[in-house]
Amino acid sequence: MKSILSWLKTPYFFNPSTKFKFKISLIFGLFVFVFLYVFKPFTLSSYEVFLLEYTAIIGVFTFSGSFFMLYVPPLIFKSYFKEDSWNVGKNIFLILISIVLIGILLWFFAGSYKESKGVENISLPLFLLYSLLVGAIPTFFSVYINEKITRVKREKRAQEITSYKKEKLLEKKNKLKHSITIYSENKKESISFNISDLVYVTSQGNYASFFIKNKTDSLKEDILRVTLSKIEIQLENYPGIIRCHKSYIVNTSYIEDIFGNARGYLLKSYLIPFNIPVSRSFSKQSLQSLLS
User: Does 289 score more than 80 pLDDT?
Assistant: First the structure.
């Protein structure tokens, strides 16, 4: 039970791309249609006369319902579908809700359709059971396989990057012994520090928090009213300072490890009490540069 709960909490990637959602919905709709038409499970073998039409309509309903569930709820419940907190459990819950809702819709359609053909409809609980058997089991299996393959691939890639680049960290620290001043939006306030002491910067709305290392290897936080985009421009001449995520700028001199899971890559530093996420838009070369 504990291992199952741990797996449900495993990070997973919810792809926000509309094209991806359309593709997955189309594949799922085609799978349901082909499976029902070819294997004729449950009572479908008795519908031979109108089997093709019936299963094709079910496939269309499945495609439409799947796309709706992948596209509309994330627009309404944005905090629940936040990419950085998405996991296997949330993904499976979405699948179950989708199958139940699509199943109920299909049951009503099936009732009307079968009535026009003079065929008695089955009960809703039995129809939902059939829907779960057809949709849930293969979908859960694909989630398990996809999470494992993606996680292993990223873990392996992260290890390769770490191993290849680790020896260059000390070289980079020697290149960052420069002082810089960052000004606020209104130019009335500023923060000055040595580039070599900057560990990371994170956004707080219209404000940015600068975390700077002091002599005791602890971090001091300074807050300034300025956007990460403007900070990024002012630090662009320092190759060791990289914006790795929409909410983070890091000094890669302090990044000692990079690892991955099904959701993406994460950066680890002994000075930072949490792992910093890496944007999925990063290319292979950009990932390598994080530890170069």
Answer: no
